[in-house]
Here is the input.
Amino acid sequence: MRQIWISKAGVPEVLELKEAPDPDPRAGELRIRVEASGINFADILGRMGLYPDLPRLPVVVGYEVGGRVDAIGAGVNPDWLGRDVFAMTRFGGYADVVCVPEKQVFVRPAGMSAEQGAAIPVNYFTAWQLVVVMGGLKAGETMLVHSAGGGVGIAATQIAKHLGATVIGTASATKHEELRRLGVDHLIDYRSEDFEARTREIMAGRGVELILDAVGGDSFKKGYRLLSPTGRLGMFGISSAATGKERSIASALRTIASMPWFQFTPVALIDANKGVFGVNLGHLWGEVERIRGWADELLELWNQGVVRPQIARTFHFEDAAAAHHYIQDRRNLGKVLLVP
Here is the structure.
């Protein structure tokens, strides 16, 4: 098999393509011939040496794949053999062969490609947790989503529009036309506009009910101020700590210093009738059965034509460094994938 390794922390060029023997599935596992692997910002942070959950280097990262089952371990139903699937991988997803516990594998419905399948687990499970499970978004409410052109942003928009909510999104101006086509009602150019002031203008001074923010730092403070009574701020990352392509302690410290450490106090939350919550799908490995329930609901939305992953671009394994550059240069609108 072929795998993409992070040999040391640094710029995208530290990614190395290596050969290794094909693994054999252990008891309770399925082996998947991978046709597409998802790239996520956690992988980029890991490459930069900024992801706290990353195993010791060198390591193969990757949380999701799409492909076909070609072998099973002891105790696994033989009906899995030959099935088209997508799967959650706890690292190791940047490979053309992976072995995964059976409970982390999902059958792809008719019409779903391997690329679309690989684009579902991280983005759509995260969006479902943010918008439905913890965000409680309802028809008639308004959601502000940062990085609306990213995989989570597009997934959250599809779910929110299905629920009957209004969506405000932040993105660079070059992405606005396409994002309108994808359902975003109001767009803010984060490069030239202050999203707090612009959102107040759009809402005529009224706050929003739900904010999805993976930027962090001062953005959390502004978002909290924008919440209406009963509004909820969902935090799922701190991308502002990674402004370059190598680890910068100064950038990380600036982000940490600008965090609202003393704003979300119990008394302040009570008095403001606001809620703040965090989401990290990578810390839910003990809740896979819960996630499988979310998958059932999302796959039903696939059958209804609501869930449709937007694939920005695919890169061959040999071009993994270019894929990381592409994302960090903010050129993608939707999911970026690696294909063997």
